[in-house]
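Mods, move this if it's the wrong board.
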Amino acid sequence: MKTSHDMDALIGKFLSGEASPQEAMFLEDWISESPENETYFEQSSKAFGLTEKTISTDTAWSNVQARLKQAPVRKLPIGWISAAAAVLVISLGAFFYLIQSNKEHLVYTAGTNKKNIELNDGTDIQLASHSSIELVSGYGQKNRSLKLKGSGYFSVKHSKKLPFIIDAGPIHIKDLGTKFNVKTSDDTIYVRVDEGVVVIYDNKGMKLTLKANESAHYVISSGDLRLDVLAENLKKQYKTILLDNQRLEDVVKLLNTTYKVNIRIDNPALKDCRITTEFLNEDLDTVLMVISQTLEVTILKEKNNEYVIKGLACIQ
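Not the wrong board. Structure tokens:
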């Protein structure tokens, strides 16, 4: 009596067109013995079609009938049957592994607006517009690694067993329990820590540790990784600013007060332009860059702390 292992091997040979006429007839008798055998054969046929190539049972029987006319009946060595079974099992295993792997490779993308993401390990991410993250296979179980394209603000729960690591291309950022911001702009990647500690590594082996209220930048073209040295009074200018459909004229007044600068609007028609966004402890240059891109205006720095906003009236 053949075991289920031998029957799997025989079904695999039959569906691939390699079964001898004697084996095919034995399989046909086995299928007709019970409804359970018939169901098992149908399920195996479907699985085989997914893992190898789509082969109909009619085609398989045709192949056997053709071989009846040109080949004598011979008994296949049991070793060959075992080998075929191993191939079928491996193929099925590989197929379901690929399905599982695709499930683990999760990608989150933000369109024109930012996107809030909460991962299964309790990590909160505020993904900036036109940015994306891809979780490495096994995230939350074997690792806590992800790939970042663009910018995002990360609030991470620390784990000694599974450190949180961001692959930002030319640099990697390792969290030591913190809240921090990663921002990519043209040729530069900026990292700022609000709480805790992060360690930055580049592809050349450079290492830089950032503590709370410290920031650094990496110039992609030159491979230069540097700690930012900011005056204490400049650090105090960092604020959280929430804008909800605010008029540009009111936004300018708020920025002038917050950052101790003088920003003016060149074209009066721009005063009624509306903007909705949120700035979490961003420096003035970042705030102005976002406003410029959002409203499609030009912001020029004149002298000292004076800026001018130029452009056409917004389409309301």
